[in-house]
Amino acid sequence: MNGNLREDERISIALRALYQTYGYRPYRVNRFEEYELYLRNKKFLGSERILSFSDTDGKLMALRPDITLSIVKNAREEELPLRVCYAETAYRVPHGAHGFREIMQVGVECIGQVDLYAMGEVLMLAARSLETISPNYVLDVSDMGLIAGVLGKREGHEAILAAISQKNLHGLREACAAQGIDARTQALLEALTEAGGPLEPALEQLDRLDLPEACRAPLARLRALAKVMRQTGGERIRLDLSVVNDMNYYNGLIFSGFIEGVPTSVLTGGRYDPLLMRMGHSGEAIGFAVDLSALEQSLPPQKRPDVDVLLIYGKDADAAQVARAAEAIIAGGESVRVQREGRVTCTYKRRVALGEGEAGV
Predict the structure, then answer these.
(1) How far apart are CA 157 and CA 243, in angstroms?
(2) pLDDT 10s digits, 69-127
(3) CA 209 from chain center: how many Å?
(4) d(CA 5, CA 330)
(5) Domains (ranges, CATH) in the chain?
(6) pTM here?
C-alpha cells in the first residue's frame, strides 16, 4: 500500500524512522496554545502574524505557528534529558506569501543535555534528512559564538545580523557606523561574512584571522564537530557564517539545509539554550525542523494512480460476492476501489469487472 503514498508522506515516514533509529521518541503537541506564549516570543517566531481565537472561557488562544515553543513549554523537568521527534503542522505566513498556510514540519529536539556528541548527532541527522529528500543537498553551519565574540556585549545588533545574513557588506558598514563600531571590529565582521566553504578548509581560513579571545571556544567547538562529522559522512557540510539568528534565543551552533531546485532553506536548526532559560528550564537544547511544505516545487508531479485495482460490479451483483472479490485483491497486496458500474472518478492500474453470478476474481 505504501506505493500509493504521496512523496511528502513517504519522506515524513522515512525521516521519523531515521530519528527513531537513534532513540528519538515520537512526540505530539497541541494544535493551539495560549496566545501569550507566542506574544512573548515573537522575535523567536520571526513574525508578528499569529492566528488567534477566543476559547469558550474567553481566554485568548492561538493556532501554533511553531513546534519547538510548544515542546519546550510542555516539557517537564522530570522528563529531561528529552530526545523527541515529531511530524506536526504549524500555521503561519511563509516568507514571501500573502496569507496563512499549513506548514508540515518533521524534526527533532534534544533538550536538557547537549554535549559534543549530541551536537554531532543532531548535525548528522540534519545531513541525513536532506539526503533522504535529495542527493543534491548542502548543509550550511555557523556558530553564533563567533559573531558574538567579535561584537562583545554590545546591544542593538539586529541591523548588523540582518546585513550579515544577506552578505550585504555595504549594509554591514552602515550598521557598524550607526553603532560606532571601530574599524578593526568592522573588518573582522566583514571577513566572517565572506568566509565559507567546505567545513575544515574554511576553519583553516578563520585561523588566519586575528579574532578576539572570546572566539576561541566556538572555533574549537566547530573543529571538534568537524572531526565528529568525519565519522558520519559530512562531505556536504559547509561553513557559512552568514547563517545567523536572534542572539536572545540562539547561541552556539546553528545551521540551514538546502536542496537543488528549492530557492529557500528546507531545514533550519541550532542551539537555543536562551529560549530554554526564558521558558523556565535549566540546561541546553538543540534541534531542527524540515519544512516539507517548502518541497512542493521540487517534488516530481504525482503520477501514481489512486488505486491498484478498480473493481466494477453490476447493479444485480451479489454483495457478498463483491466483498469476497475485494478481500481477495487486498490479500494479494493491492489496493482496490469497489464501485458499481457507471461513471469512474479515480485512476487505477487495472480494471476488473465482476459479472453476475461470479464467485470471485
Answers:
(1) 15
(2) 999 988 888 888 999 999 999 888 776 667 788 889 999 999 999 999 999 999 999 99
(3) 33
(4) 16
(5) 2-295 (3.30.930.10), 307-354 (3.40.50)
(6) 0.82
